[in-house]
Every structure is written in structure tokens, then in C-alpha cells.
Amino acid sequence: MEVLQFVVLFITCTLATSEQTTVLDVAAKNGATILRRLLNGTYLESLLLSEGNYTLFAPVDDGFDWLPPSVYDELNKNKTFVNFLFTFHVVKGQVESEKFKNDVTFATLHGATKVRMNIIGTTYTADGVDVTLPDLSASNGVVHMLQRAMYPIPTLSLLEYLTTTPTLSRIVEVIQHANLTEFFKGGPFTLFAPMNIAFGKLPDGFLEKLMLNKTGLVDLVKYHVLTDTLFSEGLYDNQRLTTANDKQLIVTVMEGNVVINGALIKGFDIIVNNGVIHVIDRVLIPPN
């Protein structure tokens, strides 16, 4: 009888062990077969097949269509680049969705770069990408399926991005003149950043006079800033947004265009490590 019980226990444990699957197995079973193929033979694969404890943000196969063709081609031939991109999709330790809050960040395996979580309605987002299926348990962690890969990786801060983008050099000059460089080292922020040509639409002499009025200049800059991260998916018609200087912006959505107080958003969701930037075609003028 004791021998029979031992055999039954052994078979039960063996079956339970065989049913356990790693985060890579779980991801592949739920639509991330391209990710699984790309990781073959990489350092990251060996890590995610180990007995450690990891959180994997896994893009589904259709999500690779969002990548620029040159990036996808590079992933298919360069294992170093595969490790570079997808270490940003892995958090050491098990992070379930109950820990997701607006603007909470988690350190990834990609050096000091963190992934930022937000909640838009009932949808979780990771760096602005929808989490389509959260909390899939694995033997060595948990998997959250993503609508697409998180790319590009937000290694630059908001100011670093602005200063390295020639078409946004005028707003950098205004920020510096307003002595707000230290302010923008904080965050998280959403910045509606006027393109250089937007400043040419201002009345003659307006900006020159404002440059002599430091209080007014600070007011102008902060009127373009929200003190949280708001991705394009969270923008809707007739929405009221409160700016960093406690004023209101109104969102208008019509025929696929998104307008903020009359300024058309020309570029959405430029993700930086302390927020997000939306590029607009006009300078926003605060009331009074």
C-alpha cells in the first residue's frame, strides 16, 4: 500500500512539474511566437528559461508590424540588438497588474531604463503600449501580453530629446530663458511642444516682449505642460486638462485630428524617460 501511494505521489509530482512552463513558453502559447523565435540562442533566452523570477512584457506577433521595417530586419539578423531591445521588456521579480498605477515605473534589465505604467480607462499601458492580456502565470514569473513592442527605448530625458531635435530648438530657447531647465529635470510630464514654425505664427514682436517678462514667460511654458503622463490614447473630445500653472486646456477630436486649444497635434507619443511629448503646430497662449 505504501509503495502504491509513493508511486501515485511520484506520478502526480512529475505531471505537475511537466505542466509548469516558463515565461517564454507562456508568451509563445499566447501569441508571441515571433518573440520566442527572435530570442533563440540569446543571453536573454537563457535567463528567461532559468529558475529565476521575472516579469515579461511580450508583444504579440501582429505587434511587430508596428516596427519600422529596418528595425525588424535588424532583429532578424543581430542577436545583440535583440538583447538590447527586449531586455527593456523584462523586469526582475514578479510584478502583477495589481501593482500597476498611473506613472509607476519598474526597473528593467535594460540598464537604468525603466518601464512606465499607466491606466487609461480600464486598460493598462506599458510605455504607452496597451497590455492586452495581463497576469499570465509561469513557473518562473508572470507574463503581460502587449499590443506591440515597446520601441524606441526611452533613454533620453525630455530636455535631452528637445535639445537633440533641431525642429524643436525654439522651445528649448524659451525654456532656458525662463530658467526652467531644473524644473524639467523632474517629472513625470506631458509636454505639448510647439514646432519651430509655430513661433513664426505669433504676432509680430510678441515673443520678443515676452522674453523681457520672466513671469509671463514661465506662465507661457507651463501652459504647455501637464504634471503627469498622458498618452494619445487617453485624449478624447471635450476633455479638460489642467496645466502645470493650474490653467485649463480643451481637447477637440474631429475627423481623426486632435486639437489642443486650437493647436493641431502633429506628432504623438514621443516617449522620454520622464514623460511624453506631443508636437503641436501652434504656441498655446495662456489667458490673461
Automatic annotation (TrEMBL):
The keyword Membrane does not apply. GO terms for biological process: cell adhesion; extracellular matrix organization. It comes from Mizuhopecten yessoensis. One of its GO terms (cellular component) is extracellular space. Residues 19-150, 155-284 form the FAS1 domain. GO terms for molecular function: cell adhesion molecule binding. InterPro entries: Adhesion/Biosynth-related, FAS1_dom_sf, FAS1_domain. Pfam families: Fasciclin. It comes from the Eukaryota. This is Periostin. Residues 1-18 form the signal peptide. Keywords: Signal.
